[in-house]
Every structure is written in C-alpha cells, then in structure tokens.
Design brief:
The complex is a heterotrimer. By secondary structure, chain A is an all-alpha fold. Helix content of chain A is 71%, strand content 0%. The longest helix of chain A is centred in the N-terminal third of the chain and has 37 residues. Chain A starts with 6 loop residues before the first helix and ends in a 7-residue tail after the last helix. By secondary structure, chain B is mostly helical. The radius of gyration of chain B is 28 Å and the shape is globular. Classes of the chains: A mainly alpha, B mainly alpha, C alpha+beta.
Chain lengths: 284, 313, 365
C-alpha cells in the first residue's frame, strides 16, 4: 500500500518547500540589490573612501559633490534635458502613431497578417544593421546630431512596441461600441477619438510608459546618431570608460540620476509588465 | 403616449459643412490614413535605409578612401575573410545561448518560488524586476565598478566567502571576462524570463493541480506532466524574445570590456561598430551587417512566425 | 420613416458565403423579425442594412434610395446591440445625446429631446449615472433611448434581449412591442429565439444558411410551414416527426406509419401529389396530441393507445413522451391528465393539423 501523507508529513514538506522558496528569492534579491546599492552608495561617497580594503559600505560623511560635478562638469544637465525632451517627444509621437496604426490593424485587418508581421519583425532587427544606413542618411538630410533626428529614430524604434501593445488592447475591446458610434452618426475618426481612445486610455498610458523607459535607457542609436549637441544621458557614460582618473562618484551620480526615474516609472506600470515585455502577446 | 413629431426628423450629420467632401474622403480611406504616418516613418527609416545600404554594399563608401567606386563583392569578401568576424559571430552565438539558458533556469526557479501569494509579495516583485528598467549601459558600468580590481567589492566579498584573498581580473583575463559578461546580462534579463514565466504559471488552471492531487500524483510528476506542457507555449515565447534580443548584445560589452582583452569579447554588433564607426570602413561594415541580417532573418522568420501562431491560438 | 428593400444580396467573409442571395421587401412601419439558428446570416443581414458591413453583390434601398455606398451615419438608421454597446465613459445623458451632438444640435433642444425620451422609458432619474451603475434592464432602456432619440427612419435590433435573465426578458419584450405600437417606425429585429420572434413580429423572416427559408405572418409560419426546417424551428416543445408512407384508400389518401399501426385517412383537401407508397415525414405538434375523451374519437381524430415513458410537468401543462409505431412522440397534456411514467392511456391525434413533408427535399406536401 502506498504511504499516505500524514498531516505531519504534509507539514514538513510544506515547510521545506517554503524554505527553498525563501532561499531562492532571497539570494536573487541580494544579487539584484548589492550592485545597485554599490552604485548608489558610491555616488554619495567622498573620494577618499573609493580605494579602501575592505570596501566602505556605509560612508561616514555622505556628500552630494559628485552630483554637481556630474551635472555641470560632464554636461550631465545638458544630457538630462536632452533625454527628457527626446524621450517625451518620441513617446508622444510613438504612442499617437502606434495607436492609430494599431486601431486600423485591429479593426479593419488592414494588410492582414503581412503588415502585422512586418511591424513585428522591425522589433527584432539588430540596431547595428539598421543604424549604419540611417547614420549615412541623417548626415545627408542634416538630421545628424539633432533632437528631431533622434526623436524620429526613437519613434521608429518604439513603434513595434506601441503598435503591438495597442493592437492587443483594441482586440479585447468590444467592437460594438464603435459600431454604435458609427450608427449614431459619427465618422470613423470621431468614433476613434470619442469612443475607442477614451476606452483604451489605460492601455495607451501603459504603452507610453514602456516607450518612455525604452527610449530613456537606449544607448546605441544615441551613440551613433548624436555627438556634441543632441546627446542623451546614457551616452555620457562613455566619458567614464575604464574609469581613468577614478571618477567613480561622478559616474555613479549620473547612473543614479538616470536609473531612479525609469525605475519609478517602471513601478507605476508593473501591472502591465508582461504585456510590455511581450509586445502585448501575453496579457499577464 | 409620447410621439416624436415628423418635424423632429433630423438633418444628416455633417450636413452643410464646407469640409464635407474632405471628411467623406477621409472616412472612406480612414483605415489607410490611420496607418500612413507610422508606415511612412517605418518605410523612411527601415526600407529606404536598407535599400540605400544595399547599394553601399557594392561600392566603396569608406571615409578614408574618397569616391564611390563600384567594387563588386569586395566588401563581402573583406568580412568573410576576416577571422575576427567569424570569431565574433561564434562568440555571439555561444554567449546568447549561454545567457538565455541560465536566465531561463533562474527565471523558472524564481517564478516557481513566487507563484504562491504571500505577505509582502508585491514589494518582492518590485525588487526583482528593477533591473528591467535600467539602461544596459548603466548595467555594464555598474558591473565594471563592482568587479573592479582590486578595490571593487566583488573580489572582497568572494575573499570573505572562501576565506582567503581573491584577486580575479574580471575584465582583463579570459575566461573571467566571459563570466563577467554573463553575470551582467543574467543580472539584467533574468527578471524578463521570471515575469513572463510567472504569468504563464499563474494562468495554469488550479483545478488541474487539484485533479492531480486527487489522483495521487507526486510533486515532480505534477511538474513534468502538468506544469511543463501547460507552460510550453509561454516558454517558446519567452525564449524567442530573449534569444532575438540577446544576439544584439552590445551595450554591456561596450561599457564592461570594450571588446577586450584584445579582441576576446568582440560580439557581432561590437565588431560591426568597430569596423564602421571607429575605423570608418562604412561599406565593409554595411556588408557585414547585411550578412548578420540575413543570418538573423532566417531565425526571425521561423521564430516570429511561430510566435504569431502561438498568439493566434 | 421608410421602407427597406433588399435585392439579391450576397456577402462573403473570406471563404464563408454568409448571405447567399436574399430578397426582402419590408414595408414602412412593419415590425420584421429575422430569426434562425446561429450562423444563418441574420446578424450579417442586419449589419449590412446598418452599413456596418459592406456588401459584395446586390442592392439595399431605404426609403426608395439606394444606400449601398452610403456610410452608416448617413443612412439615418438606429441600432440596439446585443451587449447594449453603451459608452462606458459617458453618462446616460451623454450616451443618449451623442447622436444629437454629432448633428450639432443646440443644447437646449438636445436636453428637451433627451428628457422626453427618458420620460418615455422611465429612466429620467438615471441621466447623470454611468452605465456601470445601471442594472441590466436599465442599460437596455438606455440603449433603446439612444436609438429613438433622433427619430430614425428604421430601427435595427441585434438580439437585444439575449443578455437579460428570463423574467426581465419577458418584460422588455413587452416594452419593445409597446414601443413599436407607439412610434410605428419600421423595425427590423434579429433573434435566435423563436418565442421572441412569434410574439413580436408582424412578419417573421426565417433564415437558414444565408437564404430565406420562409417568410410571413407568425401564425402562417407556425401553422403552414413550407419546410421541415421551419416546422421544427418554430414551436416549443418541438414538432414531433414520425416516418411513414402514403397509401391510397377508398376514401382518399391515408398515411401509414412505419413500424406498424393503423393507416390514418387524411382529411379532405389534403391530397399530396405523390405516388402511392411514397415515403413521407409526418409532423405532429405536441398540442395536437391530447388525452382522449370518454366517447369515440371525433371526426378527423385518430385514437392510439400510449404507454407513457417520460413525464415532464411544467405546472400548467405536462409533456408526456410515448412511442408511436416505435418512434418517440411528445404529447401536451393538462397537468392532471397524467401522474407518472409507466401509465397507459389513450390519446387523440388531430389529423386536420398534421403536416406532411417529403423526406428527400424537406418541403411540405
């Protein structure tokens, strides 16, 4: 006869499983947090604490001096402003254009599978393959190292994200509301503006946050398409390559300045994370 | 009885407006007008550049050599004959497979550990997904800082763990440099796997497990016979997304190793960047990216088509 | 107010031929119900009339005007949807007045009109609420209010009651009928529910596989179905079908059931043009099979002995199933005519109300 689980045995099994869970999750949280903590704590450490063994985990005299240095000596402020302008504009443009395209794809099956496939493939194109010719074209068009150029490039880069997230969103909204609007005497555009968009607003907001984060954290396009004028925050980190001159504090101050806003925004849309990561393919 | 009088008959909407013809036109072609702006942008920034670069493939477009002479397949030959190009490709493949495998296993373990609700789960979730919102450049830079020799905390912490001082040159020596790259990538992208697999696990109907428990099926068997098959489409999706992103690996390399020591950590993207934007052999880099693109397209075709089917189901 | 005329209409969805040549002429002010099983094309037909689906072939006229190319907004029709399709981000007032706003009506006139309609439907106190704050029946009223507020030429209803529970459905059905009596506008109503079709319609159009199977006044369809399908679709419980064959007799034609039993002489005037011995399907409605009285069977009735196998009481009536010549038949009995299964009794079958069908074509004889 097969041994039955006595309550007691069941209890120890649960307990053991629980312990394993806690260990796995706990270790991974340490793994995530320790480097992050190191960056943040280094950003407020006086320079004399950098090169000590054992390392200083809790600086006795925290300072903000690296922040002022990063923002003003390394043009961090300029990068921050550029990043804000470019990310906001690209987010707005991508969300608007993406929502429009997604609506047409979802409601009218425009282009059928082919168009949808084409947009999705864009997401997986390696940037290095596409950025070279864009670089050459931008030089020819006078868009190299301009805000507008980078905004357009980022709008293009994030369109698959906005189109697919909104496509999935519109597909789950009932079509009859827009039908009712058409019969009520609205044009297609009015039905879209007055009925579909307000209903999709939460989805659009979530998509916009994901677009913002992916533009805010993007490095490669900015590296290649900008230089001294329209550069964004992430590109400044080139200055700290290899840490010659040991500007640890400045590097970490800049890193903290960049990662805090995107993490805060990310927390706001955590509920939609699965949709954001899979372009709406999964609802989560 | 309420009667709506015949006088109540309303004029058609939009009657008497001067823009009526325009609005009728816009309404008729509405679905195409909605697509047009996005499609034009995509065309302008992907199809047009690709066609342009198709031409660049076959001419000399080198900032160091003037003129645009037709050179035939010369640019392609340059790439194919460059041993660094093939080693970069091999490294790209090996690195992406390694990181995706590790991230999958860790992500699945985390997802299994987190699938039950408990107090404080929300906060733990937030902590676990933080790396997803951080720029890969900063990830590379942070790990460069963390792994610094001799003053970074990594060597010190390891020394405490093993009981004697450790002095690993994380970014200066093979194989440590590969391990450093893998660690940084795993740090950033394991949460991706975790989040998707967790959503997949949560979507498995609870009654399947209840039925299994009634049938007396053990824990491991439940995992093999219920969890894995139910999770399979989501695993496919997660692996596809991750793999297609992993082969683009650039930012972390750029900040952490700079391709070094020597050229030991040149990935495909980093190689093309070096050729094109550091040495300005633009036509060679273009030819190289076309080769990379064609190789990837095959993978994209297969995987994305399958993805669309998973989604349709 | 307008008539609706549909000619030779075809509609495909990819490989599916959803509407296959429909001709329909709906006079002004009539209440027409399109009914049929799911997938018969009734909703598609309605949506093409609304202009929500483009048509592949044929012609649609509203008030004598061809509207094939006309947008929904210009057709001056109103529609009530199955899921009500109320705009969740607008108040009841906003929902009802949207069509007026689309026509740029002055605010005072708009409020006056919405007020009148809200009065008519008894939802005046709900105007400031949002749809999620309403019950199912209230939502239904708002959806109807939205349709009638602009006094359209034609009303279209797409299964408007199917999301309501049974009691509310009966109530709203009555209200829609009353509404039609009051405003006397052309109404086209789609449902899969034959009770709704029977109770509401001036005319029923029964569709099957994208074509019209039969159309006419509800009682005509009920009493003189032209096909087996119509006979089986209308009426609840369903008409009984038993197989048999025709036999010539001294007093005209008789029908003999398969599996034995007597031959039933058909009443005068029912002389199907079929050869002797041809197979037929005999259709008997349960209400035409009843408990026999004390005397002998009346003229035009056939009496059989039945061993009741199953009894389904509904309160006012009890449905009893028995085998007639080895084929199951249901009889509608008074509640106290039968107490339990296993009982034996005599039943009378009203031969004057018997329908005969050709088993090959399904057509009535």
């Amino acid at each position: 006869m097969k041994a039955r689980l006595t309550p007691w045995k069941l209890g120890t099994r649960r307990l053991r499983e629980g312990a394993v869970r806690i260990v796995i999750v706990g270790l991974f949280i340490m793994f995530v947090l320790v480097p992050l903590y190191w960056v943040i704590v280094t950003s407020i450490k006086p320079s004399k604490d950098y090169l000590t063994v054992p390392p200083v985990w809790f600086p006795a005299e925290p300072t903000l001096v690296h922040y002022t240095a990063a923002l003003f000596s390394y043009r961090g402020l300029q990068g921050l402003i550029n990043s804000l302008i470019i990310s906001s504009a690209a987010t707005l443009l991508s969300a608007v254009l993406g929502t429009m395209m997604a609506y047409s794809l979802a409601r009218f099956r425009t282009g059928g599978q082919h168009l949808a496939f084409w947009v999705l493939s864009q997401r997986f194109l390696p940037p290095v393959a596409i950025v070279l010719p864009i670089f050459l074209l931008f030089r020819g068009w006078g868009l190299y190292d301009t805000h507008i150029g980078l905004i357009l490039a980022y709008t293009f880069m994030t369109l698959p994200l906005s189109v697919w997230m909104m496509y999935a969103y519109f597909r789950q909204l009932p079509k009859s509301l827009e039908d009712a609007a058409l019969v009520d005497g609205l044009s297609h555009w009015q039905a879209f503006r007055l009925v579909a968009v307000p209903l999709a607003a939460p989805g659009i907001a979530a998509a916009a946050v994901f677009i913002f984060i992916s533009v805010w954290t993007e490095f490669f396009f900015a590296l290649i398409l900008t230089s001294r004028y329209a550069f964004t925050l992430p590109t400044i980190f080139r200055a700290f390559l290899g840490f010659q001159g040991a500007q640890y504090g400045e590097a970490c101050a800049l890193a903290t300045t960049s990662l805090v806003p995107s993490i805060v925004l990310g927390m706001l849309v955590q509920r939609h994370l699965v949709r954001g990561l899979t372009l709406g393919a999964l609802r989560g | 009885m309420v009667q709506l009088a015949p006088a109540d008959i309303l004029p058609p909407p939009g009657a008497g407006r001067s823009s009526r013809l325009v609005s009728a036109f816009a309404d008729r072609y509405f679905k195409w007008l909605m697509i047009a702006p996005a499609a034009i942008l995509i065309l302008a920034l992907s199809i047009y550049p690709l066609l342009f670069s198709l031409w660049v493939n076959f001419v000399n477009y080198d900032f160091q050599i003037p003129g645009h002479d037709f050179v035939g397949l010369q640019n392609f030959l340059q790439v194919i004959q460059d041993p660094l190009a093939s080693s970069a490709l091999v490294l790209t493949i090996l690195l992406s497979l390694t990181v995706v495998a590790i991230e999958f296993v860790l992500g699945l373990a985390l997802a299994l550990a987190m699938v039950r609700t408990f107090r404080g789960r929300g906060i733990v979730m937030s902590l676990l997904v933080m790396p997803l919102f951080i720029s890969p450049v900063i990830v590379g830079q942070s790990w460069a800082l963390f792994l610094q020799r001799p003053f970074g905390p990594a060597d010190y912490l390891l020394g405490q763990l093993v009981g004697h001082p450790v002095n690993i040159s994380w970014v200066g020596e093979v194989p440590w440099v590969y391990i450093a790259i893998v660690i940084a990538d795993v740090w950033q992208w394991t949460p991706f796997m975790f989040v998707i697999l967790l959503a997949g696990l949560a979507a498995i109907p609870q009654h399947l497990y209840e039925a299994a428990e009634l049938d007396g099926i053990g824990g491991l068997q439940t995992f093999v016979h219920i969890t894995l098959p139910q999770l399979a489409p989501i695993i496919t999706l997660a692996l596809t997304f991750r793999l297609l992103d992993a082969v683009k690996l650039f930012d972390i390399i750029f900040m952490l190793t700079g391709g070094g020591p020597g050229t030991a950590t040149y990935t495909a993207s980093f190689y093309l960047y070096q050729i094109g934007f550091q040495q300005f052999h633009l036509s060679i880099a273009t030819a190289g990216s076309w080769i990379f693109l064609i190789l990837l397209s095959v993978v994209i075709m297969v995987l994305v088509r399958r993805l669309l089917r998973v989604e349709a189901a | 107010m307008a008539n609706v005329k549909v000619s030779a209409l075809h509609k495909h969805f990819g490989p599916v031929h959803a509407v296959r040549g429909i001709d329909l002429d709906i006079p002004d002010g009539e209440f027409t119900v399109l009914v049929g099983p799911s997938g018969c094309g009734k909703s598609t037909l309605l949506r093409t009339i609304a202009g929500l689906e483009e048509i592949d072939e044929g012609r649609i006229e509203i008030g004598g005007e061809i509207v094939n190319e006309m947008r929904p907004r210009d057709r001056d029709v109103a529609m009530v949807f199955q899921d009500y399709a109320l705009y969740p981000h607008m108040t009841v007032f906003g929902n009802i007045s949207l069509s007026l706003r689309a026509r740029r009506m002055a605010k005072s006139e708009m409020e006056e009109r919405v007020g009148r309609v809200a009065d008519m439907l008894g939802i005046k106190s709900l105007l400031e609420r949002y749809p999620r704050q309403l019950s199912g029946g209230q939502r239904q009223r708002v959806a109807i209010g939205r349709a009638i507020v602009r006094n359209p030429r034609v009303f279209l209803f797409d299964e408007p009651l199917s999301n309501l529970d049974a009691q509310l459905r009966d109530e709203m059905r009555g209200e829609i009928k009353r509404l039609h009596q009051e405003i006397a506008t052309t109404m086209i109503y789609v449902t899969h529910d034959q009770v709704e079709a029977m109770t509401l319609a001036d005319r029923i159009v029964l569709l099957r596989d994208g074509v019209i199977e039969q159309q006419g006044a509800p009682l005509d369809l009920f009493e003189q179905p032209t096909t087996l399908f119509v006979a089986g679709f209308l009426g609840s419980p369903r008409m009984n079908f038993v197989k048999g064959r025709l036999e010539g007799g001294p007093d005209g034609v008789a029908v003999k059931l398969n599996g034995g039993g007597p031959a039933w002489p058909l009443p005068r005037g029912r002389n199907p043009v079929l050869a002797n011995g041809a197979e037929v399907i005999v259709g008997l409605r349960p209400e035409h099979v009843g408990r026999a009285g004390t005397g002998p069977a009346a003229q035009g009735f056939a009496r059989v002995e039945a061993a009741i196998e199953l009894v389904q009481p509904t309160g006012s009536r009890s449905y009893a199933t028995f085998k007639l010549a080895d084929q199951p038949v249901m009889a509608e009995l008074q509640a106290h005519d039968i107490s339990h299964a296993g009982e034996r009794m005599c039943v009378d079958i009203n031969l004057r109300r018997v329908s005969l069908f050709d088993p090959g074509t399904g057509k009535a004889l």
